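Whiteboard transcription, Tuesday session. T.W. wrote the structure tokens on the left side:
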């Protein structure tokens, strides 16, 4: 809270005389009214309401707008990593830039309608000279992660009966009260994440505040007509599970809004592009090929459908974000070592980024048996396979496969410079001719072209048209190799210029 902001009223008298903060305008206006008013102005002006939140324009955002116009408390139901908390934090943009309060009040009392005894007495004594303080938007948003050990004292407050008796006040007098989070958030937005984890007793307390403006503390009734917009988040299954949320509280939450993961791969790519830290101050320039972005996103989509992954907890959008960041780091590290100007992440870098995947997957029993690393490797392979199929639909790559069937093998060293790698890929007949199908041209840096060439081989491997072994790298598929037997020779062997 700030006191004496230049250009703004500093006493109750000057506040009354102002136009913007007159009693007529704000004495009876609730936080929800304030948000509704600002929202209406933004809608009329065609302003973007939740900048940076992608993929919810036609689904989640219209429902939030409706809830706010209706002055509802609301809950966002969704799995983890669906931008729920981020949306709630952005609600502050719908608050007035500055809000006057009685200076020094713990519960940020409205100067025209104070609810605490301190402020009522102060105003009775000093009248128009009562000092006014100011709240910024960010100070009006309070967030709490619900856990089973949160108490009424944390959330609403506590009182000391002995102190109350000594001061000769009635127990219901809030002068003896030590305020919890909720009263301290008065006249703002209070967000509770994972609502079902809140003990039933606290839920009752919340309900009472929302319903009646009073609450019982240690058995004594306390009048606390707080002015708040309450917003919540929860996992949908937890929320609907019987007995997790007390019915009267559920009844008071005006709107239940479902969030979701990106509905299309393109959306997912756009979100990850925006969120991942890939444009870094670095001596090497990072170029992320489009097919790598798509593979990263495809992996998240596959994981969300995978039976071995716990659907109840979901697969957060933070997975593709962290995966891309780690893969870029691995490419960056390689380029730094090789003294190259450009770093381009390859499929190999996705495998190197395995820790970014395994830490973000909650596995079912079957997945645990297999092991998180094995599941993650399979996801990478399948994601490459899917993206490959889309890129090479109708393209004929049998010449490349044939090169291996004739006994060719190629091991791509992790730390080989991009130029050398590209030369090695160039020995495979016809391989680099397919790069244009991936949107890669001769003008692209060697690192990008090498990544594209490797991707084709990884794609063929994903579709089991060729094999990959530890010692030999990419080789022909099992059966073909047996057929070729010992007689199989590398076609490139005969090329004199090699
Ligand atoms: Zn007060």
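and on the right, the sequence the group agreed on:
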């Amino acid at each position: 809270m700030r006191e004496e902001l230049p250009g703004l009223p500093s006493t109750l008298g000057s506040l009354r005389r102002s136009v913007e903060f007159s009693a007529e305008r704000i004495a009876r206006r609730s936080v929800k009214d304030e948000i509704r008013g600002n929202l209406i102005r933004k809608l009329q002006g065609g302003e973007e309401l939740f900048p940076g939140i992608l993929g919810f324009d036609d689904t989640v955002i219209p429902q939030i707008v409706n809830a706010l116009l209706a002055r509802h408390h609301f809950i966002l139901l969704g799995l983890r990593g669906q931008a729920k908390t981020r949306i709630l934090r952005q609600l502050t943009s719908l608050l007035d830039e500055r809000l006057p309060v009685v200076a020094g009040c713990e519960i940020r009392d409205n100067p025209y309608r104070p609810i605490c005894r301190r402020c009522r007495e102060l105003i009775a004594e000093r009248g128009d000279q009562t000092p006014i303080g100011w709240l910024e938007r960010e100070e009006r948003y309070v967030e709490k992660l619900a856990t089973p050990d949160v108490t009424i004292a944390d959330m609403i407050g506590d009182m000391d009966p002995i102190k109350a008796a000594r001061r000769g006040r009635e127990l219901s007098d809030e002068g003896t009260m030590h305020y919890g989070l909720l009263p301290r958030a008065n006249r703002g937005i209070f967000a509770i994440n994972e609502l079902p984890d809140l003990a039933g007793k606290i839920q009752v307390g919340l309900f009472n505040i929302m319903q009646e403006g009073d609450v019982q503390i240690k058995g004594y009734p306390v009048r606390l007509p707080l002015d708040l917009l309450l917003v919540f988040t929860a996992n949908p299954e937890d929320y609907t599970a019987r007995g997790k949320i007390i019915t009267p509280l559920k009844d008071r939450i005006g709107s239940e809004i479902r969030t979701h993961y990106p509905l299309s791969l393109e959306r997912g790519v756009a979100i990850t592009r925006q969120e991942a830290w890939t444009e870094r101050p670095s001596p090497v320039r990072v170029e992320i090929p489009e097919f790598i972005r798509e593979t990263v996103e495809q992996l998240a989509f596959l994981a969300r459908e995978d039976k071995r992954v716990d659907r109840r907890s979901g697969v957060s959008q933070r997975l593709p974000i962290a995966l891309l960041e780690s893969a870029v780091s691995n490419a960056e590290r390689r380029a730094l070592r090789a003294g190259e100007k450009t770093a381009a992440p390859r499929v190999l870098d996705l495998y190197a980024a395995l820790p970014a995947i395994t830490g973000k997957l909650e596995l079912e029993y079957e997945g645990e048996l297999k092991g998180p690393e094995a599941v993650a490797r399979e996801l990478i392979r399948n994601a490459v396979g899917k993206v490959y199929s889309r890129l090479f639909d109708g393209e004929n790559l049998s010449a490349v496969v044939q090169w291996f069937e004739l006994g060719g093998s190629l091991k791509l060293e992790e730390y080989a410079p991009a130029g050398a790698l590209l030369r090695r890929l160039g020995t495979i007949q016809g391989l680099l001719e397919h790069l244009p199908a991936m949107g890669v041209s001769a003008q692209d840096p060697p690192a990008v072209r090498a990544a594209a060439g490797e991707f084709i081989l990884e794609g063929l491997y994903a579709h089991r048209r060729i094999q990959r072994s530890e010692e030999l790298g990419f080789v022909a598929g099992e059966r073909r190799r047996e057929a070729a037997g010992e007689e199989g020779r590398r076609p490139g062997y005969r090329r004199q210029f090699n």
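Someone added at the bottom: Residues 318-338 form the longest helix (21 residues).
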